[in-house]
Write a structure and sequence with these properties.
By secondary structure, the chain is α+β, with helices and mostly antiparallel strands. The chain has four helices and four strands. It has a four-stranded antiparallel β-sheet, with helices on one face. It is globular, with a radius of gyration of 14 Å.
Length: 103
């Protein structure tokens, strides 16, 4: 069973290419997180929001990452963090070509 973690928060930037450059080391470090299968980075320049969609092997690894990342964001001065954890219905997701078929 896979677990999807959704996180978003208000942020003044950077966005786009500047975000990709500034957060490059962070992106590589996230690959080392226990239980992480993948992450999709999200951003909205218009609403000044950023975040990510993550797929984890277990609920526990998703919760552990959420707690660690919320502390990191708080240390960066981000005050309002929205998050949700969902169980992925793999059978239906595979029908719609969601990237979970090998999990």
């Amino acid at each position: 069973m896979a677990y999807l973690l959704q996180i978003d928060f208000k942020m003044d930037g950077p966005f786009g290419e500047e975000m990709a450059e500034e957060f490059l080391n962070l992106a590589f470090s996230i690959n080392e997180v226990d239980g992480l299968m993948w992450k999709i980075w999200t951003e909205s320049w218009e609403t000044k929001e950023a975040g990510g969609i993550y797929l984890f092997e277990t609920k526990e690894t998703a919760e552990h990452y959420l707690n660690m990342h919320a502390k990191r964001l708080t240390d960066f001065g981000i005050k309002e963090i929205n998050s949700k954890i969902f169980i992925v219905n793999t059978k239906l997701t595979e029908i719609n070509k969601g990237p979970v078929s090998k999990y």
